[in-house]
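seq:
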Amino acid sequence: MSDVQLGVIEARFADRVWECEPVSSSELVKLSAGEFGWKRTTTHTVLRRLCDKGLFQNVNGTVTSVISRDEFYSRQSTKYVQETFQGSLPAFIAAFTKNNHLTPEEAEKIREMIDHAEEV
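struct:
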């Protein structure tokens, strides 16, 4: 699962499914026609690819997630930090904050996350 890569359009479609689930595949066809300009076959093709990748399941025309959006992006973020920063979260944060200053609210939220992670 951590090896799953999504293109921009796949990610937007996946986000839409996560927002709407459980959702019928026919409703996804309508949503995709309006949002992406897709035909029914395109929607079903992209949905099938995402199901094959293990993100969603389509059971009797009802689409639900196999993995939550938060869990998927958490795994992707972990993989990115491991591959790019040799697993060093401090190195990632140093790189991120080098040209991006944190607001006091962001800094406080990060402190809260660190405190929570230390408790677990």
